[in-house]
Design brief:
With 210 residues, the chain is mainly alpha-helical. The chain is built from eleven helices and no strands. The chain has one domain.
C-alpha cells in the first residue's frame, strides 16, 4: 500500500520533473484575476497540446465562451465541495453534463475536459490522461510498482462522462486513507501528480525503451 510519505514524495518529484507546472500556476493566477477563459486556453495550449494544436486555427472562441457560461450553474453546484467529502452520486448529472459539453469541443475533448474542470474547481475534480485512463497495453501496467503492490488495480476507462464520473469515485476510494496537507496545492491536484509520477512517466519510459 502507499504511505503518506510516499504520496508526498511523489508530489515533490512532480514539482522537480514537470516543467509545465509553472503554466498551471499562471493559469490559477489568471483565474483569480478574472481571466478565466484565458486560463483555460493557457492550460489547453500547454497541458493538452497534442489535441489542441489540431484545432487552434479554427477554434471557435466565442462558442467556447458561451458553453462555459452555459455550464456555470452546473459548476456552481459543487463550488464549495471538497474531494474527500463530496458525495459524487448526488452530483452525477451535473458532472456528466459538464463533461459531455466540454468533451464535444474539438481541441478540448476528453483529457482537456478534465483539466478545465479541475481549473474551475481545484478541490473536486481530478485530471487524467491516456496513461492514467489505462489506454496503453496492459503489460505496461503490470510492471508498475503501485500495481504490483496492489494499491492500483488496472482498469481501462472509456472516453465518456460515465467513465470519468466513475474515475472520480475510484480515486476518492483509492486515496481515502491518505493524509495530505498543503498550502500550495489541493488534494485533487496532488492525486493527479501522484498518478503522473507513478503511472504516466514510468510507462512513457517503457515506450521509449521499446
Amino acid at each position: 500500500m502507499i504511505t503518506n510519505e510516499e504520496f508526498a514524495k511523489a508530489t515533490k518529484e512532480f514539482d522537480n520533473i514537470e516543467k509545465r507546472g509553472s503554466f498551471y500556476n499562471m493559469a490559477i493566477d489568471l483565474i483569480e484575476k478574472d481571466f478565466e477563459i484565458e486560463a483555460y486556453f493557457l492550460i489547453l495550449a500547454t497541458w493538452n497540446f497534442a489535441r489542441f494544436r489540431y484545432a487552434v486555427n479554427n477554434f471557435d472562441i466565442n462558442g467556447f465562451k458561451e458553453k462555459i457560461k452555459e455550464l456555470n450553474p452546473y459548476f456552481d453546484k459543487v463550488k464549495d465541495k471538497d474531494f474527500r467529502t463530496i458525495n459524487f452520486d448526488e452530483y452525477k448529472d451535473n458532472i456528466k453534463k459538464i463533461f459531455t459539453t466540454l468533451s464535444s469541443i474539438k481541441g478540448v475533448e476528453y483529457t482537456g475536459t478534465s483539466k478545465i474542470m479541475h481549473l474551475r474547481n481545484r478541490s473536486v475534480f481530478v485530471m487524467w490522461d491516456g496513461y492514467i485512463k489505462g489506454e496503453k497495453p496492459k503489460r505496461y501496467y503490470n510492471e508498475l510498482e503501485i500495481v504490483k503492490s496492489g494499491f492500483w488495480k488496472y482498469k481501462r476507462y472509456k472516453n465518456d462522462p460515465e467513465n470519468y464520473f466513475q474515475f472520480l469515485k475510484d480515486m476518492q476510494e483509492r486515496f481515502k486513507d491518505i493524509i495530505f496537507q498543503s498550502n500550495e496545492k489541493t488534494f485533487a491536484k496532488a492525486i493527479d501528480e501522484f498518478n503522473y509520477v507513478k503511472i504516466t512517466l514510468p510507462i512513457q519510459d517503457m515506450e521509449k525503451k521499446e
